[in-house]
Design goal:
With 349 residues, the chain is α/β, with parallel strands linked by helices. The protein has a single domain, classed as Inosine-uridine Nucleoside N-ribohydrolase, Chain A (Alpha-Beta Complex). 36% of the residues lie in helices and 17% in strands. It is built from 13 helices and eleven strands. Helix 1 packs across helix 13 (334-347) and helix 4 crosses helix 5. The longest helix has 21 residues, at 246-266. The model has no long low-confidence stretch (mean pLDDT 94). The structure holds alpha-D-ribofuranose and calcium ion (CA).
Length: 349
C-alpha cells in the first residue's frame, strides 16, 4: 500500500483547487534552442534534485551554463558548494565557475532539509574531488559581474532558497533589467511540503522570496503543483543507471536515496525531481504548462509563514486592482520529463 503522492495510485478523485482551476496560458519565460542556447546561471543548494537539475543543464545544448552559485538550504552552504564543484567535475564541466553565497536566510531561523538530502546534501554518494575551487568573489558578486558583462540579458534558475537573488536585487538594483527571467523552483498554489502552508525554498527565506516576487523581474514559479507530477520511480532510476555513464550512475544513486526516504516515510514509490522542472522549462517550449497568477509571500510568523498566496481568478484580481506577477507551473507530462532526464544523463561522461 503506498501513500504519499504516487500519481499512479491516485483514486478517481484527488485534491484539486477548491475554487479556481487555472487554464494553461502563454509562457513568458524564454527558452533555448541548440542554435540559440539561453545564457543561464543556476543558484542552488545541491541537493539531490539540484544535482539532477545541474546535470540536465550541463547536457543540454539549449543552455549556455554561465555559473552555478550556492546557497545554504538542503545542507550547509559549504557542503552545497563542495557538491556543486564535484558534480560539475563529474559531469565533465570544470569550465563552469562556482561561487558560494548566503549561508542562511536574511531574517528568521536557518532551515535545513538534511533529513531529506542527508548531512552531505547528496545522500551517501561519494564524488571524486574537483580540481577547481569556488571563486573568492562569492555568489552575489559573480552573478552581478556576469549580468553586467553579458551582451544580452541572462536567465537565472534559483532552485534553492532565494537569499542570493534578493541580495543581488538589493545591492545591484540597476542589474535587474539584465535578468531575462527568473525560473525558480519554489512555492505552491496548494499545500506546502515543509509545512502545510509552505514549500521548503520559500520557507527557508520568506523575506528574500518577498523581495523577489515584488521585484518586477519576470518570474516563472515552478511550484509543487507541477513538480509533484515530475515523479521518478525505481524503474526510472534503473534507466538512469542503464545509460552506462558515470553521471547516469550518480543520478540513479541520488534518486534511489530519495526513493528510499519516501518509501520509509510514507510508503511512496516515487520521488519528485523538483529542481529539474525549472531547467526543463528553459530548454523546451512546451514541456511545462503555466498559468498567470498574482503571487505574494506570507512573511508573517504564524502557521502560514512562507506560503505563496497565488491568486489567478481574473475578477478577484480586477476587484483588488492587482496584476499577475508570475507564470506558475501547472502541468508536465511525466513520461516526457523522465525521458528528458535519461537522454541528458546518457550524454554526460
Ligand atoms: O521543496 C523542494 C525544494 O526544496 C527543492 O529545491 C529541493 O532541492 C529542496 O531544496
Ligand atoms: Ca534545491
Amino acid at each position: 500500500m503506498s501513500a504519499g503522492y504516487n500519481v499512479e495510485d491516485w483514486g478517481p478523485v484527488h485534491a484539486i483547487p477548491t475554487y479556481h482551476r487555472a487554464g494553461a496560458g502563454e509562457r513568458t519565460a524564454p527558452y533555448g534552442t541548440p542554435e540559440h542556447p539561453i545564457p543561464l546561471i543556476i543558484d542552488s543548494d545541491p541537493g539531490l534534485d539540484d544535482a539532477l537539475a545541474i546535470g540536465l543543464a550541463c547536457a543540454s545544448p539549449e543552455i549556455r551554463l554561465l555559473a552555478v552559485t550556492t546557497v545554504g538550504g538542503n545542507a550547509d552552504v559549504t557542503r552545497c558548494t563542495e557538491n556543486a564543484l564535484r558534480l560539475l567535475h563529474a559531469y565533465g564541466r570544470d569550465d563552469v565557475p562556482v561561487a558560494e553565497g548566503a549561508a542562511g536566510a536574511i531574517l528568521g531561523d536557518v532551515v535545513r532539509a538534511t533529513e531529506v538530502h542527508g548531512t552531505s546534501g547528496i545522500g551517501t554518494t561519494q564524488l571524486p574531488e574537483a580540481p577547481n575551487q569556488a571563486l573568492p568573489e562569492g555568489a552575489v558578486a559573480l552573478i552581478a559581474r556576469l549580468l553586467a558583462e553579458s551582451p544580452e540579458p541572462v536567465a537565472i534558475a534559483p532552485i534553492g532558497p532565494l537569499t542570493n537573488i534578493a541580495l543581488v536585487l538589493r545591492i545591484h538594483p540597476h542589474l535587474a533589467s539584465k535578468i531575462s527571467h527568473l525560473c525558480l523552483m519554489g512555492g505552491s498554489i496548494g499545500e506546502g511540503n515543509t509545512t502545510a502552508s509552505a514549500e521548503f525554498n520559500i520557507l527557508a527565506d520568506p523575506e528574500a522570496a518577498d523581495v523577489v516576487f515584488r521585484s518586477g523581474v519576470p518570474i516563472t514559479m515552478i511550484g509543487l503543483d507541477v513538480t509533484h507530477q515530475a515523479l521518478l520511480d525505481r524503474r526510472a532510476s534503473q534507466r538512469l543507471r542503464d545509460t552506462g555513464t558515470r553521471s547516469g550512475a550518480i543520478a540513479a544513486e541520488l534518486t534511489d536515496y530519495a526513493l528510499d526516504r519516501n518509501l520509509e516515510w510514507s510508503g511512496s514509490l516515487t520521488t519528485a525531481i523538483h529542481d529539474a522542472v525549472a531547467i526543463a522549462h528553459l530548454l523546451s517550449p512546451d514541456m511545462v504548462a503555466v498559468a498567470r497568477y498574482h503571487v505574494v509571500v506570507d512573511t508573517g510568523h504564524g502557521p502560514a509563514r512562507g506560503r505563496t498566496v497565488c491568486d489567478g481568478l481574473p475578477f478577484r484580481l480586477r476587484r483588488k486592482g492587482m496584476e499577475a506577477n508570475a507564470d506558475v507551473g501547472i502541468l508536465i507530462e511525466r513520461s516526457r520529463f523522465e525521458d528528458l532526464l535519461v537522454n541528458a544523463f546518457a550524454k554526460l561522461p
